[in-house]
Amino acid sequence: MTVLNLLARRAETAPAARPLPTEVLRQRGQREVFCGLTGIVWLHRKIQDAFFLVVGSRTCAHLIQSAAGVMVFAEPRFATAIMEERDLAGMADPNEELDRVVAQVLERRPDIRLLFLVGSCPSEVIKLDLSRAAARLSARHGPDLRVLNYSGSGIETTFTEGEDACLTAMVDLAPVETATAPHLVVVGSLPDIVEDQFRRLFSAMGLPRVDFFPPRRAADIPEIGPQTRFLLAQPFLGATSQKLEDRGAQPLRAPFPFGAEGTTAWLQAAADAFKISPAVFNSVVAPGRERAKRALARHRETLQGKSVFLFPDSQLEPSMARFLYEELDMRPIEVGTPYLNKELVSCEISRLPSGVVLSEGQDVDRQLDRCRAAKPDLTICGLGLANPLEREGLATKWSIELVFSPVHGFDQAGDLAGLFARPVTRHAMLGV
């Protein structure tokens, strides 16, 4: 192997919830989606003393570099151990090569406290056991360094599952719970500024202790156990949620914190669990909720009454459709998602209008036919479909921006709405 190192609250006006759709259009065919390696782009910025070492090909390295938009000398916290022909042909011992590359990384970055070995399609094809490698390297370089592994392979996955796999692995490092009173853990990678905003809101409500997972530093992984109440900040963390429940933690189900109403309902779930009085809750939440509603009003003028078609990409689609319908008065035609975990997104899809098509998985050609026939005012899709659809006269929004941009919470509600309003405005100005 050679290392390509880049070291170098309540909703007063929300519509009544509807029963969950009994029928879901399930598709199995050709898909258009990034692989789970892409999650490294936001995860490496979040955990400040962690490092992500992808064991993969040059294609893996180019993908991460392109997605991250960094230069070789920018010193981010990820790299790629490139598997050469001799590794794939069995002419070299891949474990010895991996040990050598890890030693190189640690020599240059001695500040690393948590190292992730990230599997890829090539490493899984040759059956390289990264779980054994992680255990071996933890024993060799511990106790100051802990090594974990997870799969970022694009085989039968979508790109946000990279974060889900990463956090699932991290649950094993969570200390045994010593707390005797309930405490809150917010689960899902959030930009630091958004985390700080939520932390201030929870503190003002009087919650005695709130932890975020993943933490900013590896040593701050929160205790997990029967006294843990957790809120998911992202709708694509099904495996992480299950593993937390296996540890005895109790989930608080709510719409996700997108927009004024979504964020209010999400915070309300925590307030109810910790018996925060309505008066206190309203006094804390009202200012931010009103700011968000004012910010959304500017974009509602552009989007009101417009139709929207969502292709499956990130698993954020049910949440985004709820936000666009409930808070911006858009009309969702089809809401596609790579995987539909009804337990996690039931609060979202129960708020969608009757008649909307809810689809799981993808058969891209058939879905394109439905999209063209519907002629939506806005199509939310992956990069690979956006340009061809633009060429056909449809306004599009890259769905990956919804993951890479700060979009959670009251103060980001206007920015989130703007992501959808801009392509509609541009399309109108161009007179397409």
Characterization of this structure:
With 432 residues, this protein is α/β, with parallel strands linked by helices. It folds into three domains: 35-157, Rossmann fold, CATH 3.40.50; 183-258 and 266-281, Nitrogenase molybdenum iron protein domain (Rossmann fold); 289-430, 3-Layer(aba) Sandwich (Rossmann fold). Helix content is 44%, strand content 17%. The protein contains 17 helices and 15 strands. The chain has helices at 40-46, 58-68, 85-88, 94-108, 121-125, 130-141, 161-171, 192-205, 238-246, 259-273, 278-303, 317-328, 342-349, 364-374, 383-391, 401-404, 413-430, and strands spanning 2-5, 25-28, 50-56, 78-82, 114-119, 146-151, 183-187, 210-213, 228-232, 250-251, 307-310, 331-337, 357-362, 378-381, 396-398. It has a six-stranded parallel sheet with strand order 2-13-12-11-14-15, sandwiched between helices. Strand 14, helix 15 and strand 15 form a beta-alpha-beta unit. The longest helix is centred in the C-terminal third of the chain and has 26 residues, at 278-303. It is globular.
